[in-house]
Amino acid sequence: MKRNDFTAEKLPALSRRAALALRKKLVREAFGPSGETVLSVLDALTDTGVTIKDVRGYIVFKNRFALAKMNLSDDSTVLGKRAQDLYPEKLWRNYVDREFPTMRTGKPVENKVFGFVADGSKAHNLVSVYALRNSRGRITGNINTFRRVAASASTPNWYHKIEGVIDHIANHYREPITLAR
User: Fold this and answer.
1) What pLDDT is stored for residue 100 in this prediction?
2) Is 150 helix (H, G, I), strand (E, B) or coil?
3) What's the burial of 181, exposed, middle or buried (CB within 10 Å: 0-12/13-18/19+)?
4) Distance CA 128, CA 113 (A)
5) Contact between residue 132 and residue 58 where contact means Cβ atoms under 8 Å apart
6) What pLDDT, on the 0 to 100 scale, is given for residue 4?
7) 61 CB-contact burial (10 Å; exposed 0-12 / middle 13-18 / buried 19+)
8) What is the distance between the alpha carbons of residues 117 and 125, in angstroms, rounded to a whole number?
9) φ/ψ of residue 73, rounded to 5
10) What would the pLDDT profile of 58-101 be if each residue is shown by its tens digit?
11) What is the pLDDT of residue 165?
12) What is the C-alpha to C-alpha distance for residues 145 and 52, in angstroms, rounded to an integer?
């Protein structure tokens, strides 16, 4: 398995104890001695979902907002699991496809709109994904945030057919346009 390739192989879920130990280590490396305070602040956000994963894709933290959007009251169902353990393949592949480049390169995804979310709604989410690094600069995980764009916004049933075009435009809008005759 390549380092940071959290899609390469099927990995077993972690026990709660192992997941909590991994969270403690990852949070200490990324946020220093105030890591638990940072988690408390993230957990208190009432309009933003937050998920923290290690480089293999193991979920080590989900805040209350993110859990509520999954209709969960606590993290016991998700802690120590990967997207592959929680969602149908089409959905988990979407999550991995948007998170893996950040895990591999460290380049963030910032404020990108995605539809077809985990709660089964067709709401649009404004998503950002950032790499977490240790004191040596090595990527140790990621932090993923999302906010609902608007309560009335929804993904039309044809959206998935043009999603690639929208992504291309978003990634290349600064490039000059040339017209061929």
Assistant:
1) 85
2) coil
3) exposed
4) 9
5) no
6) 42
7) buried
8) 8
9) -95, -15
10) 999 999 999 998 888 899 999 999 988 888 887 788 888 888 88
11) 76
12) 9
Helix pair angle (16-31, 35-44), 10° resolution = 100
Cα separation of 82 and 130, whole Å?
17
Map residue 72 onto helix, strand or coil.
coil
| Phi, psi for residue 110 in degrees, rounded to 5 | -125, 125
Give the C-alpha separation, 96 to 98, whole Å. Answer: 5
pLDDT of residue 19: 92
Residue 68 sits at φ, ψ, to 5 deg, of -65, -35
d(CA 60, CA 62): 7
68: number of CA atoms within 13 Å, CB side? 12
* CA geometry: angle 79, 82, 87, nearest 5 deg: 105
Q: Specify whether the CB–CB gap between 51 and 143 falls below 8 A.
A: yes
Q: Where are the alpha helices (DSSP H) in the chain?
A: 16-31, 35-44, 64-69, 83-86, 89-105, 159-172
Residue 42: CB atoms within 10 Å: 22
For residue 1, name the pLDDT band (cuts at 50, 70, 90): very low
